[in-house]
Amino acid sequence: MDSLTPTLLMCLLYIVLGTIAILANILNIFIFLINKEMRKKYVIFIALDVGELINGLSYVLTAIGRGSSLLDGTFGVPITVHECFFERYWVHSLIVGTELPALVTTAISIERILAVRRPIFYKRVATMKTRILILVVVTFIQLGFLSTAAISAYHNVTEHKTRQCFIITSTASFFSTFHFSFVILAYVISFVSLLITFVFHKKLHKNSNGAKADHHLGLSLSVTGCSIVLVAMPSAVMMGLKWEWFVINDLGIGFCYATTGFLSVATTILNFIYRDEYRSQLKSVFRLNTKQKTKVENFVSPMPAFPKWKNKVAAGKGMYPVM
């Protein structure tokens, strides 16, 4: 096999996976946005889908960028960390596409824990204004992370043999180590916290809203659990490559790192399973319940409404009562 073949296959894999992830997240965002109540209730989840949409876009941009280098023969030309970050266009979406979902998932986990452990306080503060404020804070944190990445890469002349421009070859060692460690820890801590809350809730919470709280906690646990599996693998692989614990060819890296893209598909499936509103809205959009509606309409034929003036005339003739 030619030495560049694994890289080409990785690019093709990224194009396919990125496209699927983008479509899945566009569907999620669309379903949430077209319904006013869902738009307000799930504004933070919309932000999560936006983050995963950026992640899907990063796959496509990475594939185009690396594929272009392969085609024009510059792939094997050495490149510095500074050039990767400031002269290539995909590393920024790689950073944001993994960090932003981790930040939003952490915010969602905190919200769920408050909803279960401090329901009165949660009802008082869980307003649209509060959720927007949370997203503003998350945005500023993300901008801070991205700025730190830029500072770490600025005038960094460390040279790399190929123009892959991974996160680990586009930023300083301290930032790439922080990046992958943060992503893993954010999901692990969120999952453990939710699991502890879920166990205590099952044992101690006996009110009438228990089933509903279990339902929401189950969704959050499922999302964070999938995230640990699908995000921890590529993060561990990239950390191992950074510190030279092992060596993997580009196709192997592509398969390992591709698991993050499956998170969008997993989120879509979990939305369909756990959210009644999402499921109903999705069926309505794709007209999956058209036959059922038609049957009801065939059996129920309501009396046509008459304008008031016709009712009066009819009443005068003894046909209909005056409304």
From TrEMBL:
Keyword Transcription: no
TM region(s), chain numbering: 12-35, 42-61, 89-111, 132-154, 174-196, 217-239, 251-274
InterPro entries with a match to the protein in the record: 7TM_GPCR_Srsx_nematod, GPCR_Rhodpsn_7TM
Keywords for this protein: Membrane, Transmembrane, Transmembrane helix
Domain G-protein coupled receptors family 1 profile: 24-199
Top-level lineage group: Eukaryota
A GO term from the CC aspect: membrane
Localization (cell): Membrane
Protein's name in the database: G-protein coupled receptors family 1 profile domain-containing protein
Organism in which the protein naturally occurs: Steinernema hermaphroditum
Source organism phylogeny: Eukaryota, Metazoa, Ecdysozoa, Nematoda, Chromadorea
